[in-house]
Write a structure and sequence with these properties.
The chain is α+β, with helices and mostly antiparallel strands and 281 residues long. The protein has a single domain, classed as Muramoyl-pentapeptide Carboxypeptidase, domain 2. The chain has 8 helices and 14 strands. The strands form 4 sheets. The chain has a 6-stranded mixed sheet, covered by helices on one side. Helix 3 (76-92) crosses helix 4. 41% of the residues are buried. Residues 114, 117, 122, 124, 229, 281 line the site of zinc ion. Zinc ion binds at residues 114, 117, 122, 124, 229, 281.
Length: 281
């Protein structure tokens, strides 16, 4: 039956039904995905994990390949906080660029070589750096340096032509803390190589960070010189609930990762000196 043969009445009814559907579609608020985390940072899972955007005006992923392989999922609250902080930095740190690193799988669980990163609440951020001319540039992260994780900064915060920009790092942590608080969550812990903390605290945001953000004071299981690890504080469901649920439903999707991309294989040299460790990384 063609349009021409429809009665006027049928056309009107069709038009009004179509309009109703359109109005419904427009007026229905789009529901953002909300994640659920289970268990702890080092024995956890994630449901409805969301992927960090590959890049924005002032930030980028450490590796588009790793992102594509699913290594940059987080809890939805964490995504909101991370993106809001970068947006705020566009104003408060104009011209500065930032790189984030590994986070976790869409469904959480162990993501080697990390000990934490299991329930969507851990994020690694690479240190913001200046080049020889003083310009803010992304730290060069590639397969050649195990996606950035094999870069070694010296005690002064220098690596080749790059110098850690502690002022921008402090501003980033400040913005993360503010964005987290505004969303009813928080920062549980920041891990940065302890010898760098005095440099961080000497910046304009230093006194705020001392008062409001908890830093790991001892050595972590790997030296956190090229990246800082942030654990966000979000209420999670006990891991037993995840297992109980999993046993009555289809098993959670396991993120398959080719052996060529198993993440930064942190060298044994770097691990060994720091083995007496607190859970980190
Ligand atoms: Zn980490």
């Amino acid at each position: 039956m063609g349009w021409a043969s429809l009665s006027e009445d049928a056309c009107l009814r069709f038009a009004s039904a179509s309009a109703a559907v359109i109005v419904m579609l427009i007026s229905t608020p789009s529901r953002a995905i909300e994640s659920t985390c289970f268990g702890t940072l080092s024995n956890g899972r994630l449901e409805n994990g969301v992927k960090l955007p590959l890049n924005g005006p002032n930030f980028s992923s450490y590796s588009p390949l790793a992102s594509t392989l699913g290594r940059t999922y987080v809890h939805s609250k964490v995504l909101e906080v991370v993106v809001a902080a970068y947006t705020a930095l566009e104003q408060s740190a104009p011209g500065k660029v930032f790189v984030y690193g590994e986070t976790g799988w869409a469904s959480g669980g162990r993501i080697r070589p990390h000990r934490q990163h299991q329930n969507g609440l851990s994020v690694d951020f690479f240190v913001p750096v200046r080049d020889r001319t003083g310009r803010s540039v992304p730290l060069p992260t590639s397969a050649a340096n195990r996606f950035g994780y094999d870069i070694e900064f010296d005690k002064g915060g220098r690596f080749e032509d790059y110098t850690i920009d502690f002022e921008s790092l402090a501003e980033h942590l400040y913005r993360l803390q503010v964005a987290a608080k505004a969303r009813g969550v928080g920062i549980a812990l920041v891990i940065l190589d302890p010898p760098y903390l005095p440099k961080l605290f000497a910046t304009p945001r230093g006194s705020f960070l001392v008062r409001n953000v908890k830093f790991l004071k001892g050595a972590a299981w790997v030296r956190h010189d090229e990246h800082y690890h942030v654990n966000f504080a979000v209420n999670c469901v006990p891991i037993e609930d995840y297992h109980a649920r999993a046993s009555t439903t289809t098993p959670a999707t396991v993120s398959a990762t080719p052996s060529s991309m198993r993440g930064p294989n942190l060298s044994s040299r770097r691990k060994s000196a720091l083995s007496a460790s607190v859970n980190s990384g």
